[in-house]
Amino acid sequence: MTEYEAVIGLEVHVQLSTRSKLFCACSSEYGARPNSQVCPVCLGHPGVLPVVNKLAVELGVRAALAVGADVKRLSTWARKNYFYPDLPKGYQITQFDQPLAEGGFVEIESKNTSRRIPIARMHLEEDAGKSKHPEQAGDTSTLVDLNRCGTPLLEIVCEPEIRTPKEAHAYLDALKQILEYCEVSDCDMEKGNLRCDANISVRSAGEEGLGTKTEIKNLNSFRAVERALAAEVDRQTTLLKDGRTIEQATLLWDERTGDTQLMRGKEESPDYRYFPEPDLPPLVLEDGWIGEIQSRIPESPAARRQRFVSMFGIRPYDARVLTASRGLSDYYDAIASRVPDAQTAANVITTELLGLLHDRGLDIAACPVSPGDLTALLNMRSEGVLSGPLAKQVLVAMVESGKTAEEVIEKHGWSPVDDKVQLDSWVREMIEANPDAVAAYLGGKESLLQFFIGQVMKRSQGRADPVKVAEILRQALAGERA
């Protein structure tokens, strides 16, 4: 039993998939020319009034329902006051004491067990801009891009129930998957569409109270979250063992050095002088509208994994791979019930198709082979129309050309060969080319039969019927013995 344990809570900021900002009509598209997507509202000019983006509220509700949270029929807006160069208004419109939703959970898997991480709250808020620091030697200037100002965010705060950095990683993976399935956000961390701050404290194992916490910022990947938390656990544990005091602070993670660095003393709620947003009325949601959103919530990743295993009989590992994204799980779901062997379909997709797409820099959304076309190919294979090796060649050509299996077979002349004269010829050529192996087979090493079949299939470029090849081989080798 370890002497100390970590208590971890994560604050995840997700950019919602809207075309415009939270309180104005400016575009929220990524990558535009700096400061080209701004207006008096998101710049905080005097006299302007914000108007709430209905789709942003809907996406927030959708996310809350997807994790089983309690969506509040009434929530309120507040001003969070602080100075920063990329916050031109000098305050951020957010939700404070009456958030959009509370409760719910995210289920994480660890080895053969699962655990629920409870959600404390979910609230809507606008994003700030972005400060850029030129990397040229001697340049100490800072540039500000305000395009992100006003971009709609959903902040998801979990209860401090995460105990290890690995659990934190698993929680983020599971949450990201849920948000993507629900099309709440694309969660692209490279674009800043999913960001995470981590709160952590260390206490004696078994203790009920909480230790002094620190908050880690500048975490731009799930791997960085895990590494930063591990480093901070080590740092705080060392301090406690030495009888020293942990000071509450906000820390930055340095990926290069692999350690945390002091950014500033930790702020508390009073530091931000929260007060009700005077320009926005409370957000009032009707039961009927919430029910309509609930009816459109898709099957959760966890539920789909369980269904794939129970309904199609595939291995749990393959179910996890196939539900990694909604697009991939939809693709497999469209095939599995239309083929005689769902496990073979899973194997082909996870090992062959995904490998071909990866080599070409494609994801499943851009797959040139439709679910219907792959179903047809798999059925040809299961019916013995195509051998396994030939089916692989056909799939490669389908990915390269975007054509159906029938079109590929006709173009390349890959129709299966079951003519006995041709099969006899390939078998005879193989026997004459491998006298030592034939002698070993005749001497009792019958496992070489699979080698012989493989050699014949190679000569036929995968077009031979392997069942008929095996039959002819046995007859031919028996003749050799005689």
UniProtKB/TrEMBL annotation:
**Catalytic activity as recorded in UniProt:** L-aspartyl-tRNA(Asn) + L-glutamine + ATP + H2O = L-asparaginyl-tRNA(Asn) + L-glutamate + ADP + phosphate + 2 H(+); L-glutamyl-tRNA(Gln) + L-glutamine + ATP + H2O = L-glutaminyl-tRNA(Gln) + L-glutamate + ADP + phosphate + H(+)
Q: State its Enzyme Commission number(s).
A: 6.3.5.-
Return the broad EC class.
ligase
User: Which residues are in the Asn/Gln amidotransferase domain?
Assistant: 330-477
UniProt keyword list: ATP-binding, Ligase, Nucleotide-binding, Protein biosynthesis
Q: Which Pfam families match?
A: GatB_N (PF02934), GatB_Yqey (PF02637)
Q: Quaternary form?
A: Heterotrimer of A, B and C subunits.
**HAMAP family per the UniProt record, alphabetical:** GatB
Q: What family is it from?
A: Belongs to the GatB/GatE family. GatB subfamily.
Function, in words: Allows the formation of correctly charged Asn-tRNA(Asn) or Gln-tRNA(Gln) through the transamidation of misacylated Asp-tRNA(Asn) or Glu-tRNA(Gln) in organisms which lack either or both of asparaginyl-tRNA or glutaminyl-tRNA synthetases. The reaction takes place in the presence of glutamine and ATP through an activated phospho-Asp-tRNA(Asn) or phospho-Glu-tRNA(Gln).
This protein's name: Aspartyl/glutamyl-tRNA(Asn/Gln) amidotransferase subunit B
